[in-house]
Amino acid sequence: MKKNIKFILFIILAIIALYLTRVNYGDYGKNKSISACIIAQKNKSKDMTRAEAEEYCKQEINKKFDN
After folding, report:
1. To 10 degrees, what angle do helices 28-44 and 50-66 make?
2. How far is CA 61 from CA 7, 15, 16, 28, in A?
3. ∠ Cα 5 8 9 (to 5°)
4. Which among 24, 26, 35 has a CA at the least distance from the CA of 61?
5. d(Cα 42, Cα 47) in Å, to the nearest integer?
6. 22-31: which pairs have CB atoms within 8 A and are 24 or more residues apart?
7. 48: which DSSP letter?
8. With a threshold of 0.85, does the pTM exceed it?
């Protein structure tokens, strides 16, 4: 019985740790994708400003992350 309690406690702590990690670092991949898109858009179109590229990329990346 004591062995089961330790195992259940370990599982609960692991779930909490995974949840906190997801909350803290969940947007990391999304932000990296947006940054890469901005760089690509600036290289592709020299007359596009950074603000325009950022707005375009945010819209496109959010569409893909939402689906």
Report:
1. 130
2. 40, 28, 28, 13
3. 85
4. 35
5. 8
6. 30/61, 30/65
7. S
8. no
Give the pLDDT confidence of 2-14 residue by residue, as tens digits. Answer: 778 999 999 999 9
CA atoms within 13 A on the CB side of 38: 14
Q: Are 38 and 50 in contact (CB under 8 A)?
A: yes
3-state secondary structure of 65: helix
32 with 17: CB under 8 angstroms? no
Q: Where is 49: in which H helix or E strand?
A: none
